C-alpha cells in the first residue's frame, strides 16, 4: 500500500485483510497525521517515500519491498468484503504457479440500498517474479501479461466524498507546463479531469487527441465517445452528441449508458417514441456481458434508470398504465428512490 494522511481509513482497511496475508508493506508518502502509528499496529514494514508527483514511482517502490511469491495491493480507503474472506483464503491456498495475475471486481459506488452502481475490474494479485511495473504519474495502471485469472472476490471502495480534488489535475497541468509528452492514457484521464472541473472545451480537445492516437484501450475509447457526448449535451449541441454516441457503436454492441444518453436527448427534443426506443434498448442490455469487458460500468443504466425514464415517456403520452408498469419495474431495482416513490403516488391517484 502507498498512503498519506490516512489514519481515519487505514484501520478499517487493514482489519479487513491482515489475517489473510503473510506480510503487510506500508509506504508513506509524507503523512502529517498518525498514519504511521496506525500502521504500526499491523506491521513493522513501514517505509518512507519522498513524494515526486508520480503515483507509479511510489507504487513500484512499494512492490520492490515485497518478499513473498505474490503481491496483493490495496488503497487505504479500500476493503476486502467480509463475505469474500473465505474466497480469498481459498484463492491463496490454491493459487498455482502458472497464474501470473488475478483480477477482481472493484466496487466504486453503491446506492442507498447498498446495490452496486459503478464498478470496474482490476488486476489485484500479481506474481512477484514477473516484475510487473506500474505506469503513469496519475491514474496509474499495473501492466500485466500472461495467464490472468478472473476472480469474483470483491474489493470495495469506501472513500467518503468531500468535494472535488484538484490534486490530479494540478499534476497533469504541471506535466504540461514542463513540456512532458502525454501518453494516450494521460490524454484520456486528463480529459476526464477537465470534464469533472467543467472545462468542457479542453475535455473535448483531449478526448479527441486520445482517440486520434488509435492506441487506446477499447473500453476507454467507448467511454471517450460517451464523455464527448456528455460535453455536447451540456453545451446543448445534441447533433454532435448523437454523432459521437453512434461512433461508439462501430466498436461494440451499444452499451446501456450510450442508449440512455440517446433516450435523454430525444426526450428533451420532445421525440418521445424515439426516446422510448432507446430506453428500452438500455433496459434490455446485458449487464453481466458488459461488466466482463473490464471497463467502468454504470449499473443504473442497466436497471432502474431506463424504466424510470420510460415511466416519464409514457406519462407524456398519457399512457398511464404503461407508465405505472415501468415505474414498478424501476422500484424493484431501487425501492427507496424518491422520484420513483413520487411517481407511484402520482400514478396511483390517476389510476385509482
From TrEMBL:
Q: Which Pfam families match?
A: Glycos_transf_2
Q: Where is the Glycosyltransferase 2-like domain?
A: 1-86
Q: What is its EC number?
A: 2.4.-.-
**SMART domains attached to this UniProt entry:** TPR
Tell me the InterPro entries matching this sequence: Glyco_trans_2-like, Nucleotide-diphossugar_trans, TPR-like_helical_dom_sf, TPR_rpt
Residue ranges annotated as transmembrane are none
Q: Which UniProt keywords apply?
A: Glycosyltransferase, Transferase
Q: Which GO terms describe its molecular function?
A: glycosyltransferase activity
Q: What class of enzyme is it?
A: transferase
Q: State the PANTHER family in the record.
A: GLYCOSYLTRANSFERASE, POLY-BETA-1,6-N-ACETYL-D-GLUCOSAMINE SYNTHASE
- Put simply, this protein is called Glycosyltransferase
Organism of origin: Halobacillus salinarum
